[in-house]
Amino acid sequence: MSQLSELEKKRAIAICVLTVSDTRDKETDKSGGTIIRMAKKAGHQIVDYRICTDEPTEISRNVEEWLGDAAAEAIIITGGSGIGFRDVTIETVTPYFTKTIDGFGELFRFLSYTEDVGSKALLSRATAGSIDDKVLFALPGSSKAVKLAMDKLILPELHHIVHELTKHRKE
């Protein structure tokens, strides 16, 4: 596995944030706000932030637009990942994946289980995958779950993931 240079470890990653919700707006979106706040604090750049309804066409439209944006390196989605009838984020985004990052969902559920959620963690369908040279994370809508994912998984590994997905450009 390649070592990241100090410069690569400090470089801001360009992140797009999507909140999937039928009830939230930018004033009431705690989870999207948590992603933005934590990413900025870690030195990353939020290049776009949107909210859309729990509709596959709306989710796809946003994801496809960001996939076509050369500046976007990571997409973080919150909401629509449960088992309810309107929870369609996972079904909508996984067909785009070039590769699934299985360990993300596995570790997220393990951490959720051990950090207070208990057996309810089995209901989480949080996932991640690469789409060509970008990474997409799909998180629950809970701000506590978002904080856990950002703090323990996404922020510690984001530079490494982006490096692995883009190193072919440098070779």
Please explain how this structure is put together.
The protein is an alpha/beta fold. It has one domain (11-170): Molybdenum Cofactor Biosythetic Enzyme, Chain A. Helix content is 46%, strand content 19%. The protein is built from six helices and six strands. A six-stranded mixed β-sheet has the order 2-1-3-6-5-4, sandwiched between helices. Helix 2 (30-41) links the parallel strand 1 (14-20) and strand 2 (45-52). The two termini are 15 Å apart. Keywords: Molybdenum cofactor biosynthesis. May be involved in the biosynthesis of molybdopterin. InterPro entries: MoaB, MoaB/Mog-like_dom_sf, MoaB/Mog_dom. Residues 16-161 form the MoaB/Mog domain. Pathway: Cofactor biosynthesis; molybdopterin biosynthesis.
Secondary structure blueprint with pairings:
Elements: H1 6-10, E1 14-20, H2 30-41, E2 45-52, H3 56-67, E3 74-78, H4 89-93, E4 99-100, H5 102-117, E5 127-131, E6 134-139, H6 143-170
Parallel strand pairs: 1-2, 1-3, 3-6
Antiparallel strand pairs: 4-5, 5-6
Helix pairs in contact: 2-6, 5-6
Task: Please describe the structure with a list of short key phrases separated by commas or semicolons.
19% strand, 171 residues, globular, 46% helix, alpha/beta
Task: Give a quick account of the main beta sheet: strands, pairing sense, barrel closure.
Answer: 6 strands, mixed
CATH superfamily caption: MoaB/Mog-like domain
Instruction: Give a count of the beta strands, DSSP E runs of length 2 or more.
Output: 6
Give the overall pLDDT as a whole number. Answer: 94
Order of helices and strands: HEHEHEHEHEEH
Structural class estimated from helices and strands: alpha/beta
Tally the structural domains. 1
Second rung of CATH, namely the architecture: 3-Layer(aba) Sandwich
How helix-rich are the residues, as a percent range? 40-55%
Write down the Rg: 15 Å
**What amount of the residues lies in strands?**
15-25%
CATH class: Alpha Beta
Q: Major sheet: order of its strands?
A: 2-1-3-6-5-4
| Overall shape | globular
Distance between the termini: 15 Å
Please give the count of helices.
6
Which segments are poorly predicted (pLDDT under 50) over 5 or more consecutive residues? none
Function: May be involved in the biosynthesis of molybdopterin.
Pathway: Cofactor biosynthesis; molybdopterin biosynthesis
Domain MoaB/Mog: 16-161
Protein name: Molybdenum cofactor biosynthesis protein B
